[in-house]
Write a structure and sequence with these properties.
Elements lengths: L44 E5 L2 E5 L5 E7 L1 E2 L6 E6 L2 E6 L4 E7 L1 E2 L8 E6 L2 E6 L4 E7 L5 E2 L2 E6 L2 E5 L5 E7 L1 E2 L7 E5 L2 E3 L2 E3 L2 E5 L5 E7 L1 E2 L7 E4 L16 E4 L5 E5 L2 E8 L2 E6 L5 E4 L5 E7 L1 E6 L2 E7 L6 E6 L5 E7 L1 E6 L2 E6 L2 E5 L5 E6 L1
Length: 373
């Protein structure tokens, strides 16, 4: 039975700043893969056994025996592992390529041959051989996307390239990573505590040229040609319950494609669908890139589609309460809700949790590795 019905006229979707979907417990971040690539590929999965971490393959065969305090997913052929309190990197044969020496590492893994590492409370940048590209001088880890990374200098944000050279000088109140050649940046805002407020959002290209004039009250990344924004309010008007803010999606030229007051939040498009939250019920469903509802709002939480399946949170059939399962593009449960947390599918496997125990399932819901602590 549907617990909410998503009704939208000319539908438009919107994601509000500060409205974030629940995420699973800390776990290895998967390497980036093209959404269209649904074919299983060789993959090593970090697993824990008797308190130690190692790696298995998709057939649940041990490839790197459990021996680390912690282990992350492989990205670009290397994975971060923790030994004696310090982090280093191993290759897919289990050879320690970069010896443990860092206090912390960016859990997202290598991107463009670079990764952020921490020493003495500050973040720097190394390459895949362990060579220092940038000494540890940053408060936060520079994270690369599309070969550029956001960096903060004081209260201003800019971008560096993979060699640590400044490409766009720090000048924004806040800045997001690049996606599809554009990055959302905030101008004319101010910092209050740990949050930037009061600014206007627009988009710049990789040279720093303004492509979409700052005008939005909030802005998200581009995905499949669209980005959600919170549209500006008319002069003198304030949003309230009776007059909610208008949000939706724009294209890369800044033209509104989807626009509505009916949705409280909206996510990125993946495989032709975006998760959206209905303003009046607080439940999640999915729309296509025209704003048409393709999966009704019936879920307490909803993740992006990956490899044809999306993790959603809903009531299970066994009276166990709200659990996570997986639906197909038609909204049908392929894997019924039975997990306490659930990750996205990558290379045919998804991380799932029962309590605090981590396991992996295949696309039919069969355990590749049963949940253990």
């Amino acid at each position: 039975m549907l617990r909410g019905i998503l009704l939208i006229s000319t539908l438009t979707i919107f994601t509000c700043a500060g409205c974030e979907k629940a995420s699973p417990p800390p776990a290895p971040a998967p390497p980036e893969r093209k959404s269209a690539d649904t074919r299983p590929a060789a993959v090593l999965l970090p697993v824990v056994q008797d308190g130690l971490w190692g790696y298995i393959d998709a057939d649940a065969e041990t490839v790197i025996p459990p021996q680390y305090q912690r282990a992350e997913r492989f990205a670009e052929g290397l994975a971060a592992v923790q030994s004696k309190g310090l982090w280093g990197f191993v290759d897919e044969a289990g050879t320690m390529v970069i010896p443990p020496q860092f206090d912390d590492v960016d859990r997202g893994g290598f991107a463009g041959g670079r990764i952020s590492v921490m020493l003495d409370g500050r973040w720097g940048l190394i390459d895949a051989t362990g060579r220092t590209v940038l000494p540890p001088t940053f408060d936060a880890p520079p994270r690369f996307r599309e070969n550029l990374a956001v960096v903060r200098r004081g209260n201003l944000f800019g971008y560096i390239d993979a060699n640590g050279q400044t490409v766009i000088k720090p000048q924004y109140t806040f800045a997001e990573p690049f996606s599809e050649g554009l990055a959302a940046v905030m101008t004319r805002g101010r910092w209050i505590g740990r949050r930037a407020r009061g600014g206007l959002w627009g988009y710049v290209d990789k040279t720093g040229h303004v492509k979409i004039t700052p005008q939005y009250r909030a802005a998200g990344p581009f995905s499949e040609g669209l980005a959600w924004v919170r549209f500006p309010l008319p002069p003198g008007r304030r949003a309230d319950e009776n007059r909610p803010a208008v949000g939706g999606y724009i294209d890369a030229q800044g033209r509104p494609v989807i626009r509505t007051k009916d949705l409280l939040a909206g996510g990125e498009f993946h495989e032709g669908r975006a998760a959206v939250r209905l303003r009046y019920t607080g439940l999640w469903g999915y729309i296509d890139n025209t704003g048409r509802v393709v999966i009704g709002a019936d879920f307490d939480q909803a993740n992006d589609f990956h490899e044809g399946l999306a993790a959603v949170q809903s009531f299970g059939d066994n009276g166990a309460g709200v659990k996570w399962g997986y639906v197909d593009p038609a909204g049908e449960f392929v894997i019924p809700p039975r997990f306490d947390q659930a990750g996205d599918f990558h290379a045919g496997a998804a991380a799932v949790w029962i309590g605090n125990k981590l396991g992996y399932i295949d696309r039919e819901g069969r355990f590749l590795w049963p949940p253990v602590e």
